Amino acid sequence: MTDLTAITPVETYAPPVDRSRRNYRHIRVLRWTFRRDDEAVVCELALTGEDREYELRAPADWNPTGLRVERFDDALTAFQRHAMIERTLLDAGWQLDGFESEKVTLH
């Protein structure tokens, strides 16, 4: 007697499981680099990993609050703080050297 294996329609159309892909999340990081002589100051703005807050990173010396990292509930407030920091840097003789937007993978 020969053994036969029946394939049900569900098995026929079920997509294979792709085990090579991970469920990594990506966030966008905005980065401004300011230069003066041979010095550089970098400011970064991104969503937190939970997508609940915006995180602004800048050297504490240039932030009016004296903090290196600040979190904001909305993008507008985060960009306003960045504009304050940028204005302070420009008034002190710094120049915007570069801006980049980078997609970062969260593990």
User: How many beta-strand segments?
Assistant: 5
The portion of residues assigned to helices is 10-25%
Q: How confident overall, as mean pLDDT?
A: 84
Shape descriptor: elongated
Total individual domains: 1
Our estimate of the beta-strand percent is: 35-45%
| Widest sheet, order of strands | 4-3-2-1-5
Count of alpha and pi helical runs: 2
Major sheet description: 5 strands, antiparallel
Low-confidence segments, given as residue ranges, are none
The SS-based structural class is alpha+beta
Q: Over all CA atoms, what is the radius of gyration?
A: 24 Å
* N→C terminal distance: 53 Å
List the helices and strands and how they pair.
Elements: H1 9-13, E1 25-36, E2 39-47, E3 54-57, E4 69-72, H2 75-91, E5 95-106
Tell me what the structure shows.
The protein is α+β, with helices and mostly antiparallel strands. It has one domain. 21% of the residues lie in helices and 38% in strands. It contains two helices and five strands, in the order αββββαβ. It has helices spanning 9-13, 75-91; strands at residues 25-36, 39-47, 54-57, 69-72, 95-106. The chain has a five-stranded antiparallel beta sheet with strand order 4-3-2-1-5, with helices on one face. The termini are far apart. The model has no long low-confidence stretch (mean pLDDT 84).
